[in-house]
Amino acid sequence: MTLSVITIDGPAGSGKSTVAKKLAERLNAGFLDTGAMYRAVTLASLKKEIDLEDENAILAVMDASDITFEIVSKSMAVTVDGVDVSDEIRKPYVTEKIKYIASAPAVRKRLIAMQREFAGAHGTIVTEGRDQGTEAFADAQHKFFLTADARERTRRRMADLEAAGQAVDIDELRLAIEKRDESDMTRQTGALRPADDAIIIDSTSIDLNGVVDLIIKYINAK
């Protein structure tokens, strides 16, 4: 099976998850939501009430937990110990703790191995995250980095949360996004940055289909 990997990285609210999912549908490819993996480990660790700054404790939770990821109806379905947590991992109390999981080098190494294993089960994979083009799939055939101005990213994330029935304060959300940006860009392992050979797309004024069309145009031209 020939593996073709398309990576889409970018900061919170840049639209990478929505774009990646739509792109996978258009290409009839597998969709890898790496954020769901970090969220699942975060949730499992929170439920065990461990010290999230203790990397060995997080690894122990991963060893003791049955965490699964699979594509169901073209979306990433996540279970922890047999319970579907696909919705729960998106809740703010999980989001605000992801930084501890993302900053643990050994945990990231294990998750990257899981991402590569997941990708290996598909002929073509669209994967999104913050280090897919720089770390997880540094040799990917196609790399993209999505960005958008902070105000637009806040608006998009707020719309997503409200659609999920979660009440949020826009100012608090903007501050949370700014903190996440700083954390992602300054951490020592897997820092958020475009790969040297990534195509950077500013999606501030481009709608979903426009971004997907542009990515497909770049892919076909390569």
- Order of helical and strand elements: EHEHHEEEHHHEHEHHEH
Provide the CATH architecture.
Answer: 3-Layer(aba) Sandwich
Multimerization state: single chain
Shape: globular
CATH topology: Rossmann fold
The profile of the biggest β sheet is: 5 strands, parallel
CATH class descriptor name: Alpha Beta
Sequence of strands across the biggest β-sheet: 2-6-1-7-8
Q: Supply the number of helical segments.
A: 10
Helix/sheet category: alpha/beta
Helix content: 40-55%
Q: What is the CA-CA span between the terminal residues?
A: 21 Å
CATH superfamily: P-loop containing nucleotide triphosphate hydrolases
Number of domains: 1
* Low-pLDDT residue intervals, each spanning 5 or more residues: none
Radius of gyration (CA) equals 17 Å
Summarize the model shown.
With 222 residues, this protein is of the alpha/beta class. Helix content is 50%, strand content 18%.
Report on the architecture of this protein.
By secondary structure, the protein is of the alpha/beta class. The chain has a single domain (4-209), classed as P-loop containing nucleotide triphosphate hydrolases (Rossmann fold, 3-Layer(aba) Sandwich), CATH 3.40.50. The chain contains ten helices and eight strands. The chain has helices at residues 16-27, 34-48, 55-64, 92-95, 98-102, 105-120, 132-136, 150-163, 170-186, 208-221; strands at 4-9, 30-33, 67-72, 75-80, 83-84, 124-129, 142-147, 199-202. The strands form two sheets. A five-stranded parallel sheet has the order 2-6-1-7-8, sandwiched between helices. Helix 2 packs across helix 3 and helix 8 (150-163) packs across helix 9. The longest helix is centred in the last third of the chain and has 17 residues, at 170-186. The chain starts with a strand and ends with a helix.
